[in-house]
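Re: Re: token formats

Sure, here are both.
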Amino acid sequence: MIAVNDAMSKHFFYNRYGTGQSTLDGILRATNILLAGKVFVVAGYGWCGRGIAMRARGLGARVIVTEVDPLPARGSDGLV
């Protein structure tokens, strides 16, 4: 058994994977459109923005990320 709620790194996984999936699920259910071939703009490249960008790219969208802070803007995980 692993106590995930007590883990210091829980927010990294939850923000990146959980928020990305649930946000895109809400958008797709509300608009009833497909993302394949669309341009998808993500404002901010924190942990939540990375998760959303990763999921949108996985669904076939062209992802554009806007970020004002130069350090996260360089896109160290290759999504940009």
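Second one below.
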Amino acid sequence: MTGQISAQSFTQEIDLGQEEELNDVISVSNNRFIVASVVGDSIDDYFPYYLNSHILNLDSIGQVVSSYQINDFYAIQLYKKSNMFFVYGTLQGNVQGSAIYSFNYQFVMVDSLKFITSERHKSAYKISIDNRGEINIPFTQFDSIQNYYYSSLLKIDANLNIVDTVLYDTVSFTVSTGKFNSSNNILVYQEAVNYRQMPSKTRNPIFVVDSNGQKLQQVSTVMPVYNSQLDDSLMISRFPHLEELPNKNVVLSGILQNQQSYVPGSSEYIYDYGIIVYDSNMNYLSHQVLGLVDTADFPATTNIAVVDSSFYIAGVSQWYPNDYYKNINNFIRVSQFDFQGNLINSRNYQVGDFVKINSIKPTEDKGLILVGSNYKLFGGTGGLNGFVMKIDSLGNLNTNINKVNGQTIAKDNYKIYPNPAKDELKLLKLNQFKPYEFELYDTFGRLVKTVSWREDHQTVDVSSLASGMYVYRIIDREGNVGSGKLMVE
């Protein structure tokens, strides 16, 4: 990451006394943050039933200053316009209903709009706002007489009045997300209900739709070339997000799935997550697949954060979509790209027991703020708490465990694996990204390997070393030291 160093970086857990999930965040003046949270209660922590939402006002270190509770509401997305901010979500207990609430920055609710669209309805993950302040909400309805789904855009003006509902497609799709572009057309990603019955190139398309609901263009989301054995059937398939970049290129991010071998209800065939980049005419430019062992394989479900000439996406490692809680620690991964979709770097952070990230946004000081949830490991206090993390403009995260007595490099700042090692030893930096020197000693105290550890990920060849116990040391420029033991087989 580039730019000036932020004055603050932090992690905070938010415990409102129930099960919490933080879904979205916006940054407002003076490094103050507004967060949309959903809270629930359950006799079984694995499946909390969300009862209502709390809209939280956080200070510059992520602590709750005030909150506003909305009952029977599931908050999904926040957006701001001039001196107001708005919350979009669905009405709990009524799957056909959605609502938008508007607030001033003193947390006084100014207005609300509740609407029911049809007997069987699925709202978008996200709403989209044009440069006039008009809101479009893509959704899918089921026509019980004709026995098919049809897709529509619900148009709402800046004063929360419903303007129109525009029909634009009548095939079996479930609408997932939409985004206005600079021409005030809306880019709508649609997930196929019965993709197996469709040709590969027409599955899960992006539609370019004008303000009258006229479909102008259909764009394939299938990767042109990824792996010949997959017959180019790998595509963005779950938790998609669309964003137009300042240079007018368009990014689609989300989970990648091999549609030829995917088994419904199974996470076995989910291949990490990635992005596809299109030019302003929606021609394919590039794609990136993210996620390796011990890195990242599940994306934040909302937002691509744009800072200066880069954009950022976030995800977590060791995430199992069909088994929410695992008795393991995981990593948060933040990846930086240029506007052509080239990966610049990725940063890894280990900051909690089992963390899920839902949203990433830029901050005023060119840092990033991420929100989600943290599940406490079994045997501990248990429960699901809200989670907030802010990193500075260089990608650093300052925590209370970075150093012990100013001399020891905490193990939370690096990972050395596998242990035992056979041919290669992998070095991975976490939370801080300063240069280290890595030294390896045998049991007689002899230095057998030294490496200048500059990159975030680095590999050390240990194939020539004799089997047995070794001691490693890492030293930073300030003379702080981290150490431990490892086996070589």
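The mean pLDDT is 77. Residues 367 and 393 are 4 Å apart (CA to CA).
- S.
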